[in-house]
Every structure is written in structure tokens, then in C-alpha cells.
């Protein structure tokens, strides 16, 4: 199991981003407020995942990456895209994903879907690909 460290603590990571946003007077007030609101929304989402038992390392990675996207966002429209990425599209051959949909988030999505229904062979393959990408050590232990 990958070790959880203080640097993976999603609460701390989001709080750090929030403090940075609040203190950065170069950001226009409306954009600063939108970033702060998005960070709080991200914290709420990650709290729900934590309560559902998702791995804290996984949640820390999401917080770090999404937090950076939000910190770099230049508009409210970009913040909306970051917080509401489009779903992956599979054309039967290739899977197309939104640049703001993190592999860690997509892994959670596949996990949630697999709890509700059986995955077809493409779903199983994608789930395994994402798991191997996000948790390479665990993947080798499980799949060899």
C-alpha cells in the first residue's frame, strides 16, 4: 500500500491553495472569489470520497492537481471547466478525455460505476489501465 504522508493531506493542500488565493491581491476580486468557492467545493467533494473510504493518497493527488489547475485559471469559465470536466468519450477504438479530468478522478468514476453494474470488457480494461497509472506498485502486486 502506498504510504500516506502529510504532503498528501487533501485538507492541508486545499487550505494552502485557499490561503494563496486570498493573499494574492493581483487576482481580480471576482476571480479570487470564484477560485476560493471552487476550492471549497473541491474540499467538499473530497470529503465525500474520504467518508466513502477512498484512499487518502488518491485524494491528495486530486487536491494537488485540481488545486494547481484552479490556481492557474485565468477566468471563471476556465474554473467551471476544471470543476465540471466533460465525461470521457469512447468511439469503440479510442477513449478521449477532457484535459481537466484527472486519471485519479476517472478511477473513482469507474469504481462508482462498477459498484452499480458489471463493467463490459472495455470498462474493465480502462479501470485496470487507470489503476496501473495511479497505483503502479499496487497494480504490480495485484496483476503481476
How would you portray this structure in words?
The protein is an all-alpha fold and 144 residues long. It folds into two domains: 84 residues; 60 residues, no CATH class. Helices cover 68% and strands 3% of the residues. The chain is built from seven helices and two strands. The chain has a two-stranded antiparallel sheet with strand order 1-2. α2 packs parallel to α4. The protein starts with 9 loop residues before the first helix and ends with a helix. The mean pLDDT is 90.
Overall shape: globular
How many DSSP E strands?
Answer: 2
What's the number of helices?
A: 7
Number of domains: 2
What are the secondary-structure elements, in order, as H or E? Answer: HHHHEEHHH
Enumerate the strands of the largest sheet in spatial order, edge to edge or round the barrel: 1-2
What class would the helix/strand composition place it in?
mainly alpha
End-to-end gap: 15 Å
Brief summary of the model shown:
This protein has 144 residues and is mostly helical.
What's the SSE blueprint?
Blueprint: H1 10-23, H2 29-51, H3 56-72, H4 76-83, E1 89-90, E2 95-96, H5 103-116, H6 121-134, H7 136-143
Antiparallel strand pairs: 1-2
Helix pairs in contact: 1-2, 1-3, 2-3, 2-4, 5-6, 6-7
Summary tags:
144 residues, mainly alpha, 7 helices, 2 strands, globular
Amino acid at each position: 500500500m502506498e504510504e500516506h504522508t502529510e504532503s498528501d493531506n487533501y485538507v492541508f493542500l486545499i487550505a494552502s491553495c485557499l490561503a494563496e488565493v486570498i493573499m494574492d491581491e493581483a487576482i481580480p476580486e471576482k476571480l479570487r472569489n470564484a477560485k476560493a468557492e471552487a476550492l471549497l467545493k473541491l474540499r467538499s467533494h473530497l470529503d465525500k470520497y474520504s467518508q466513502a473510504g477512498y484512499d487518502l493518497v488518491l485524494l491528495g493527488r486530486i487536491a494537488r492537481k485540481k488545486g494547481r489547475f484552479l490556481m492557474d485559471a485565468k477566468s471563471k469559465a476556465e474554473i467551471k471547466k476544471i470543476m465540471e470536466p466533460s465525461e470521457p468519450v469512447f468511439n469503440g477504438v479510442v477513449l478521449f478525455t477532457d484535459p481537466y479530468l484527472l486519471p485519479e478522478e476517472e478511477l473513482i468514476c469507474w469504481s462508482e460505476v462498477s459498484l452499480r453494474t458489471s463493467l463490459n470488457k472495455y470498462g474493465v480494461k480502462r479501470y485496470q489501465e487507470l489503476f496501473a497509472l495511479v497505483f503502479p506498485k499496487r497494480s504490480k502486486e495485484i496483476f503481476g
